[in-house]
Specification:
GO terms for molecular function: DNA-binding transcription factor activity; sequence-specific DNA binding. The protein is α/β, with parallel strands linked by helices. It is built from ten helices and 13 strands. The chain folds into two domains: about 80 residues, Arc Repressor Mutant, subunit A, CATH 1.10.10.10; about 220 residues, D-Maltodextrin-Binding Protein, domain 2 (3-Layer(aba) Sandwich), CATH 3.40.190. Helices cover about 45% and strands about 25% of the residues.
């Protein structure tokens, strides 16, 4: 039995003060309306209406039940309208997950998005792994990968990242500037602990692939801490290009071997389903597709500026 539908019929019968009037309003037969009300009475195990040939009246139980029935139907109508509106008007909590390093870029974008859609409240989670959105309840996951495996998730490509070798001017004055990738084997190379990448630094050119294995020196899993170690002259580090922008612009680091870009990876926005897509998810992903490449281009311009090269 469709209880909600039966409640609506019961309310209409009371409002029309007759089964016939309710039947006309609902485009049903009088017999169908009578049966639906009888089914509802059977469901609640109470008589709701007194029926005579002249009039229709509520029982005491029916009066109490009518009040609650109206509340239930109104609440359901409001909830339905709100849910349908979610596909039109961005509002509510948006749970976003990203890899740690990208959080530096996402925060100002979130601020700009929030100006456009003030009814959306962000919950940003940062970690070193790509979670399963369905298991952990994220609305959108910003994922970094060379390519995506087959998945039930919808994936939108929103940009590409890479890493660059950097070192402090004081270190390079002391140890010299490497001119070829294999020359890094004679340098103190700081190792970024990242589950997405192997321990080796892989350089590729027309002559093939050149692998450098940093020694077991300073190791860290947070890019910002690696920047500090590099600025302190501890050695040459491999930094995500968006993390290297600030120290290169400030002159505290210089880009080494500028002809090479390493660890190129795609950035994807993942979300569970395209069907009945929530407006806050749709607008956030569209915003990222539009604005993140522009932000990457600004950082890439710094990487390409010879003034920041060793």
């Amino acid at each position: 039995m469709d209880v909600l539908n039966n409640l609506r019929v019961f309310i209409r019968v009371v409002d029309c003060a007759s089964f016939t009037g309710a039947a006309d309003a609902l485009d049903l037969s009088t017999a169908q309306v009578s049966r639906l009300v009888a089914d509802l009475e059977g469901h609640v195990q109470a008589r709701l209406l007194q029926r005579t040939t002249r009039r229709l009246s509520l029982t005491d139980a029916g009066e109490r039940f009518l009040l609650r029935s109206r509340q239930i139907v109104e609440a359901m109508d409001e909830a339905t309208a709100e849910a349908r509106g979610a596909h039109i008007n961005p509002a509510g909590r948006l749970r976003v997950h990203s890899m740690n390093g990208l959080g530096v870029l996402l925060t100002p974008l979130i601020a700009r998005y929030s100006e456009l859609y003030p009814d959306v409240v962000f919950e940003l989670t940062l970690s070193q792994c790509n979670p399963d959105p369905l298991v952990e309840g994220h609305d959108v996951v910003i994922s970094i990968a060379p390519e995506l495996a087959d998945s039930q998730m919808v994936a939108q490509a929103i940009g590409q990242i890479y890493s660059v070798p950097c070192a402090a001017p004081t270190y390079l004055q002391r140890r010299g500037v490497p001119q070829q990738p294999l020359a890094l084997n004679d340098h103190q190379c700081l190792r970024m602990l990242d589950p997405l990448y192997s321990d080796q630094w892989l350089f590729q050119d027309e002559h093939g692939e050149h692998a450098v294995s940093p020694a077991k020196t300073f190791q860290c899993n947070v890019a910002e801490s690696m920047v500090k170690a590099s600025e302190a002259g501890m050695g040459i580090s491999l930094l995500p290009f968006y993390t290297a922008t600030r120290p290169l612009s400030d002159g505290t680091l210089l880009r080494v071997l500028p002809a090479w870009r390493l660890r190129e990876r795609n950035v994807y926005a993942l979300y569970p389903s395209r069907r009945f897509l929530d407006a806050k998810v749709r607008t956030w992903v569209d915003f990222l597709k539009s604005e993140l490449p522009k932000l990457f281009a600004e950082h890439d311009a710094v990487m390409s500026d010879p003034r920041h090269w060793a």
